[in-house]
Every structure is written in structure tokens, then in C-alpha cells.
Amino acid sequence: MRCVLFAAVILLLIWPCISAAQQHDSPFDGNWKVEFSCEGSTGVYAERCKEGMRDIFAISGLTQVENENRVCGDYVASIQLGNKVDERSSPDFPGMDGYIDGDTAYVIFGDAISGGRATIRIKDEKLYWKVTHRWDERHILPDEAILSRDSSSRYRRRSC
Fold it and tell me: How many structural domains is the chain composed of?
């Protein structure tokens, strides 16, 4: 009887680990980032770039909803070495939301007033981002970018 009770206690203790290991992982899931080069920088921007400052585009918490073709995530982009930043991260509303069809995700970023549409493809552990339409020019997200997995920050599944 004690062995059965002991086994039950052990199972209860390790169940969260087993559940986490069985959690759905999509090729889209993760944090993604690209740091842009200093090419074309002039003046103070060239100096700051030589010191290690870079502009970035990052998608964090990109998540495919388990057993659905829905995907969402948050983003941040910077230009002029951080003088202009475009960020969308809210517990209530993801920065981008869309659906997956085959190997491509079709997302809307921003909101209904300011933002646009983009496609996301995963190939060879790279994320290929391409804006297909902008509602306006307020967002500084790049028209096209190739992002790599960002292992420098902890991945947290986004609630879509």
C-alpha cells in the first residue's frame, strides 16, 4: 500500500514536467530576432553602430494555438539606433494575429487603424517576414526580414 501511495505522490510531483514536455510545439513557436548591420550608417549613427548599438526587429511569444491554425505574437522594431521604436505587446491584444495555411502564416499587425498585413514562413530554422499591405506608414516594421531564433530571452507562449 505504501508503494502505491509513494508512486502516486511522485506522479503528482512530476506531472507538471510531463505536461510541459507534451505541450504542442509548432515550427512557428518561439522568439525571433534580427539585428541590422551598420551598412549605410553615417555621422553619429556610424559612430554609435561601431560601439555596438544596432537596430532590431523581433517577434516574441509567437505561438500557434494547439489544434488550431491560429497564430499570434508580439513585436518590437527600432530604427535610427533606437531613436524610433515601434512596439506592440499587451496582455489583452497580441501585436499580430492571423492564421496558418500550410507552411505560411498570414498575419495582421498593429490594429485596424494603424498596421498592415504580412506573411511569415519558416524554412531551415529561419523566419521569413514580408509585409504585403500597410494601412498607413506609421509602423516602422521592415518590409522584408529574415529572423533567427532568439535564445537570449525566455520563450513564453502567447495567449491568443
Answer: 1
**How far apart are the C-alpha atoms of 157 and 2, rounded to whole Å?**
39
Q: Does some domain include residue 117?
A: yes
DSSP 137: S
Strands (E), 13-52: 30-35
What is the reported pTM? 0.79
What is the dihedral angle through the alpha carbons of 35, 39, 40, 43, rounded to the nearest 10 degrees?
A: 80
Residue 30: phi and psi, rounded to 5, are 140, 180
- For residue 19, tell me if it sits in a domain: no
pLDDT digits (tens, 9 = 90+) for 30-61: 999 999 988 888 888 888 888 888 999 999 99
Which residues are 126's β-sheet partners?
123, 148
Q: 97, 59, 50, 53: which is closest to 77 by C-alpha?
A: 59
Q: Let me know if 75 is exposed, middle or buried by CB neighbors in 10 A (0-12, 13-18, 19+).
A: buried
Residue 5 lies in a domain: no
